[in-house]
Amino acid sequence: MAPAALLSTAIVPMARAECRQSHQRLRAPRMAINSAALAPPSLRNVFIARNLTCGLPAGCARGRGLRLVVLAAKRSVGDLGEVELKGKKVLVRADLNVPLDADLNITDDTRVRAAVPTLKYLTDNGAKVLLTSHLGRPKEGPEDKFRLNPVVPRLSELLGLSVTKVDDCIGSTVEQAAAAMADGSVLLLDNVRFYKEETKNDPSFSEKLAANADLYVNDAFGTAHRAHSSTEGVTKYLSPCVAGFLLQKELDYLDGAVSNPNRPFCAIVGGSKVSTKITVIESLLSKVDKIILGGGMVFTFYKARGMSVGDSLVEEDKLDLARDLEKKAADAGVEFILPTDVCIANKFAADADSQNVQADAIPDGWMGLDVGTESIDLIKKALSDCKTVVWNGPMGVFEFEKFAKGTTAVAEYLAELTAGGCTTIIGGGDSVAAVEQAGLGTKMSHISTGGGASLELLEGKVLPGVAALDES
Ligand SMILES: Nc1ncnc2c1ncn2[C@@H]1O[C@H](COP(=O)(O)OP(=O)(O)O)[C@@H](O)[C@H]1O
Ligand SMILES: O=C(OP(=O)(O)O)[C@H](O)COP(=O)(O)O
């Protein structure tokens, strides 16, 4: 990917409807800024266009009297070649926070595989890689169950070289092992969260992490929303500090495709709680053409419309908010699609009795655990002409086979759309688990390695681990 594809720029103005059209039309920041400059002053400072794919100096927008909110192209590891890398000690922050079973075997190696392109690039160019990561949330210092040992064999296999490991991430143990490294080798450091200073972003700990390296690469997208020593603090003590290939790819999809999408652009938001997705829905309303809601959160919207929902999941204190979101969608001209029927259960269990009913006919004592059959068709119809789809949160309790139909149907249809050229982005967490469970992981355009990080990006937040990197 060209480094310039990381260009992240915020330009300005225009009423929202005009922005939409402009988003489709404008291909380069310079054009966007030119158009922005033509907007009346009262409409300026409204619109953020990110990830437009050509380089542009920051002063260019300012020179046209426009407020510049963000203008940052992050420097990429791909900008560094053998000259800069050979023999250098490179501290790479990856997210190797993988799920382990009781015997400490990796049950899903997605994050290990995702780290490989950057590591391979660095070792192929003769760098000495000091690889750092967290695993879980250890509270009491070093504990065997949180050691990164299980990663070593899988990573060695994927890289085709023998990865060595030390039982610490700072200090003389690391210093000695690093001094003995050959060019093109990888030394895995132990869980950086064995030090409580890590999550406090403690400057002296950051300095110690940096002490054994010459330069820094952040490829830990899943942890980029944390301002920790290994993701943010360390950048104050090393130079250059650049983005790894995974981080770039995640930003390109989650920020790029979402900010500058092929249209129609649809967001599917499901999952259990309205409260955790409010800001995502609000933020997406200014970008999408359609929004489809599913999962447990729809019952709060039904109740807000005055419908009875039986024993379904409802956030009583979010009823006003649900009404407000529907109104905002209408005001923004966004098609707001709620399921018209639901699959209900007489208890929250895999072996519950189930039936399909209209959304306004849920009997007392029953709860909605999936979208209904009619709604699956409605959702597919709404998606059929879409060119970009972002999906966050399952359509139902997909963990129970009986109530996985809506989620599976959406995953299968998205796979079909992807094959037809639609960009499909699955935003982390349970949605990814659902897609993988349906065996469709490889059929989507992009599956994010970060749940929390992808949500924060969709909410429009700045990720500290990204912000701290050098601009190109
Ligand atoms: N109708 C429903 N009632 C209760 N829980 C639901 C319902 N639909 C989905 N869920 C649950 O929502 C959870 C996922 O929600 P969430 O964490 O918001 O999604 P994600 O992790 O994809 O962001 C799943 O465990 C799923 O079982
Ligand atoms: O698994 C992670 O995040 P996710 O569950 O939001 O995808 C990351 O490794 C971050 O871990 P953290 O939430 O303990 O900081």
Distance from N terminus to C terminus (CA atoms, Å) equals 14 Å
State the name of the first-level CATH class of the largest domain: Alpha Beta
- Global Rg: 24 Å
| General shape | elongated
What's the CATH H-level homologous superfamily of the largest domain? Phosphoglycerate kinase, N-terminal domain
Overall structural domain count: 3
Structural class: alpha/beta
Q: What is the name of the CATH topology of the largest domain?
A: Rossmann fold
Mean pLDDT: 86
Give the count of helical stretches. 17
Number of strands: 17
| Unreliable segments of 5+ consecutive residues | 1-71
Helix content: 25-40%
Describe what this molecule looks like in 3D.
The chain is α/β, with parallel strands linked by helices. Helix content is 35%, strand content 14%. The strands form 4 sheets. It has a 6-stranded parallel sheet. Strands 11-10-9-15-16-17 form a 6-stranded parallel sheet, sandwiched between helices. Strands 13-12-14 form a 3-stranded antiparallel sheet. Helix 5 (110-124) links the parallel strand 3 (89-93) and strand 4. The longest helix has 15 residues, at 110-124. The two termini are 14 Å apart. The relative contact order is 0.11. It binds adenosine-5'-diphosphate and 1,3-bisphosphoglyceric acid (X15). One of its GO terms (cellular component) is cytosol. It is found in: Plastid, Chloroplast. It catalyses: (2R)-3-phosphoglycerate + ATP = (2R)-3-phospho-glyceroyl phosphate + ADP.
